[in-house]
Structure formats: structure tokens, C-alpha cells
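Hello,

Our lab assistant flagged a job as stuck in the queue for most of the afternoon. It eventually completed. Since we weren't sure the result was trustworthy after the delay, we are filing this so someone can double-check. Below is the sequence as submitted and the structure that was eventually returned. Let us know if re-running is recommended.
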Amino acid sequence: MQYDVVVIGSGPGGYVSAIRCAQLGLKTAVIEKYNTFGGTCLNVGCIPSKALLDSSEHFHNAAHTFTTHGIELKDLVVNMPQMIARKNDVVAQNTAGITYLFKKNKIDTFEGLGSFVDKNTIKIKKTDGTEEQVTAKNVIIATGSKPTSLPFLPVDKKRIITSTEALNITEVPKHMVVIGGGVIGLELGSVYARLGTKVSVVEFMPSIIGTMDAGLGKELQRVLKKSLGMEFFMNHKVTGASVEGDVVTVTADNAKGEQVKFEADYCIVAVGRTAYTEGLGLENIGIKTEDRGNKIPVNEHLETSVAGVYAIGDVIKGAMLAHKAEDEGVYVAEHIVGQKPHINYNLIPGVVYTWPEVASVGYTEEQLKASGTKYKAGSFPFKASGRAKASMDTDGFVKVLADATTDEILGVHIIGPRAADMIAEAVVAMEFRASAEDIARICHAHPTYTEALKEAAMAATENRAIHI
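-- returned structure --
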């Protein structure tokens, strides 16, 4: 079969790219190795983890804050099988939605492992062992990533697990060790800490969420320790883990070089993700991945070294974010038909879906200092927000960084209630190169969480925040 575009992978980057290609009049097909669409994000990543985060947050609030609200409960218990079942239903609804969208946009789909025969021919190996081939003028590689494994820490998927298995535990563990203080580890650690599990985070670096503004990590660690009792062991190098019966023993060297041990019911290995390029047959068309992380090199148009073959999302450089992959998928589709799309990579927001949520866009304060950029900073704490007081969400702050001379917003960093949604206002403002005073002069509804962004902008402009 001859197509204008064949997309390998149906995650956020792949399915969005395929739909945009079809909208632009291109005959499009998608090859997916699994029997459901949506990739990691919809099946074992973003969507199921958010479902469990929401469920566990409801339980935590019922157990700890409902009495203050005048709501009294007794005999509160966690029904883990039902919680997992609800999560699975959310996943099923979302993956079914992708199937509908493919049909609506007349996109052909193939189940099997896609690999290059040549740059225009893709072989599809099906689960029953049969094969077929399709040809395409353009191919988009959108195969995503998989959890990074450590050679000295074998994952048995029972007690030493990855984020995938952590989504299907049907009991509330007594103790869980999370290796890695990044987004994935903290989100999944939060789920179980809210349900009553003792959670110990073991992190090699001196701070959690190390790629974000340092103030965010410091505040998040404080709040998670205070509200959920999570333990943090920073500057610890994990050296191994073993399983005996139902007990996992994790060994690590602390900052002094002393060996320490952790015994737990489960150990989640959450040390990042690695680009998934196995079995693609890249060698058949002369594409070499980069040594570190199996990344596929691309040019400014996301085209590989082979004309007509593109790569997007987790398999190329940059943050491994679903929304980055989506934007790249749209970019490639529009570039193929001759349009002039653009992506500002500095303005792709990052979010951590703990509670409080953490969201960030633009430059961090550390980056501005390192580059010698003269800037001014303004911040506003949620403890001074009327809306946050009403909802009992007073932890966190908003920080706005602006150019010292022009007042253009250079970065916005939020830890607090609904930060994941609030950051969109900052992204819009920065896409239009707004100044801090622009946000300060915009009327924000009262009482809302977003007033904190306005107040932080006012603080950055002339240190004239009203409510602090």
C-alpha cells in the first residue's frame, strides 16, 4: 500500500501527527506494535498515573482535611482493586478515543512491529508471525521511550519494579523505596504516601526535580515531608538491590561514602527514560543513534539524515514530554505540506502532578545567573491568597523572572494549587513577549489562584504586590 505518510508509533506525538497529516489531505497510516493506541502516555504513563493521583488525593483529603470542612467520616478504607479498576477504565476510554479519531480522519492502522526495509518501505511484523509491507513518501518515527534500567539493579517486575508495574499494585504497601527524585518517582511516591505507605526517596543529586528552578524543589521537598511524611535521602548513590521473599533490600552509599540499607515491600526504579529505537531497522537506511540514550539526530525541521524520514518526541533530543511530542508531530505534518510552522522550545512548560502541583516555563534563576543575564524577580506566596485559604491549599508560591531593563518575562515558576493549569497563562504571555507589567495590569478574577501570578508580576515590576 502506498501512503503519503506512515507514522510508526501511536503515542501523543504519533497519533497527533497522523491526525494533522490527514487534516492536511495526506493519505496516512499508523503502525503500532501494541494492541491499543496511545503509547506510554495513555496506557502506562500520563493518564493512568493522573487517575491514581486523583483517587489517592480524594482519600488523603477525606482522611486529613474533611473534618476541618465539617465533613465527618468513619471506617475509611482504601479499596485498591476498585482504584485500579477505575484507573483502567479511564485508560480504556482514552485509548478508545484514539481509535475513534483515526476512523474519523480515515487513517489506516496496522498492528505490529514496524521496521525499515528502505527509506520508503516499512515491514510490519505481526504478533502471529506474519508480515506485510507498506510504502510511503514520508515516514515519521514516533516510538517514544521506555524506563531506564540500571545494570546493577535487575527489575523483576514483582518487587523491584518500574513505573509501569507501580500502576497495578493491588495492596497498600507498608514501605516503598523510590529510586529517583524526578517527576515520575515523586508522582508515584505521592500516590502511595497518600494511602498510608511509608515512602523513602533515594536520590543521587542534592535536590529533587533538579532540572527545574531550585526554589521549586526545595519547597516541594518540604511540603511532601510535612504533609505526607515522605523521607528524602539526597546525595545517595544506589549500589544494588536484592529480594528475599516479600522484602526488598536496597543498598546505597551516602554522601560520606558509608553504606546504608533500606528494607521495603517494593522498590520503584524511576531514574529516567531511554529512547525506544530497538527493532526499527535504522541501520538499513543508514541512521545512527547517538551513543547516549539512543537518541535519533535530526535537523531544525526534525528530519533525520535520510530525506523524508522524520523523528519526533522522546526519540530525539529535548525534554521527554507528551506535549512536546504533540507539537513536534504537528510541526512535521505542516512542514511536509510546505507550511512554515515553528516551535519555541524554551516555552514548553514542565509540570509535576504532585500536590501541590509544580509548573515551570522559560529560564530558571540559576540559568539566568549562569548566563550573566540581568534580571529582577518577584514572588507571591499562596498563604496570602484568599482563594488558597478557602481551599486550604496555602503551600507554595509563584515566582516571576523578568529582564532588568526591558521587563520582558524570562521565566515563571509555580508550586501550588492548580499550577499545571496556571502555567498556561505564563506561556501565552511569554509567546507574545509580554512584560511583567503586562500581567500586572491585566484584570484577574477574584478570588482565583491566578491572582498569585498577577501579584508575583507586580512584585517583579516595581516590588508593588498588594497583598504581602
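-- support follow-up --
The delay was a queue issue, not a problem with the job. The result is valid. The chain is about 30% helix and 25% strand. Residues 160-271 form a domain with the FAD/NAD(P)-binding domain fold (CATH 3.50.50.60).
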